[in-house]
TrEMBL record:
Top class in the EC scheme: transferase
Protein's UniProt name: Guanylate kinase
Organism expressing this protein natively: Tuwongella immobilis
Keyword Cell wall biogenesis/degradation: no
GO cellular component, one term: cytosol
Keyword Transferase: yes
Residues covered by the Guanylate kinase-like domain: 4-182
Family: Belongs to the guanylate kinase family.
GO molecular function: ATP binding; GMP kinase activity
Length: 195
């Protein structure tokens, strides 16, 4: 049987990616897991090591790079972020689809050595994601400006993804992504329990 789907979700900070992904994971009819990335960024209030991220220091992260532990990694907003192979490969072999919440640089690396994936770019109009970033209140002004600058560049790359979705209505976005994932399972011979 073929391996389960790899679903890459990218989009600027504040676009609602985390909420969309949480809703996908809560749908018991889709056998999915979220790959927990490693990062050198400090945890935000409420973030739990091993659940939201593996919070590593730079030495440990760089040792992981040297040891080939990463499927991809990138520097985003001054910190390292990376996908651990161990978070992905063995789960796909066990028929669980894996979601990667990664930036555009990470996606470019994954697609170089993987031709079997679904890539989705989520975005909202700029004034909306700026407001969301500010409401989150977890960054200072300089960090917010850095994220906005990155976001503008990322949006110019949206056409590189198989699907671009404007996250205007959460329910609609979630149901469109669910359908895209079901299509992926169907193409692979129906290992999703609801099909
Ligand atoms: P945040 O600091 O807001 O959690 O994440 C910042 C950015 O890093 C987001 O765009 C997120 O998609 C990206 N990111 C999170 N994990 C990874 C990863 O493992 N690899 C890459 N390349 N980007 C990641």
């Amino acid at each position: 049987m073929s391996r389960s789907p790899l679903i890459i979700v990218s989009g600027p900070s504040g676009v609602g990616k985390t909420t969309v992904i949480q809703r996908l994971l809560a749908d018991a009819s889709l056998p999915l897991r979220l790959s927990v990335s490693a990062t050198t960024r400090k945890p935000r209030a409420g973030e739990v090591d091993g659940q939201h991220y593996h919070f590593w220091d730079r030495d440990r992260f760089e040792a992981g790079i040297a040891a080939g532990q990463f499927l991809e990694y990138a520097q985003v907003h001054g910190n390292y972020y990376g996908t651990l192979r161990d978070e992905v490969e063995r789960h796909r072999d066990c028929q669980t689809g894996v979601i990667l919440d990664i930036d555009v640089q990470g996606f470019f690396q994954v697609r170089q050595h993987c031709d079997d994936y679904l890539s989705i770019f989520l975005y909202v109009p700029e004034d909306r994601y700026e407001a969301r970033l500010r409401n989150r209140a977890s960054e200072d002004e300089a960090a917010i400006q850095r994220r906005l600058q990155t976001a503008r560049w990322e949006i110019t790359q949206a056409g590189e993804y198989m699907v671009q979705l404007v996250n205007e209505d959460l329910d609609e976005t979630v149901s469109r992504v669910q359908q895209l994932i079901r299509d992926q399972y169907q193409r692979r011979g129906g290992s999703c329990s609801t099909i």
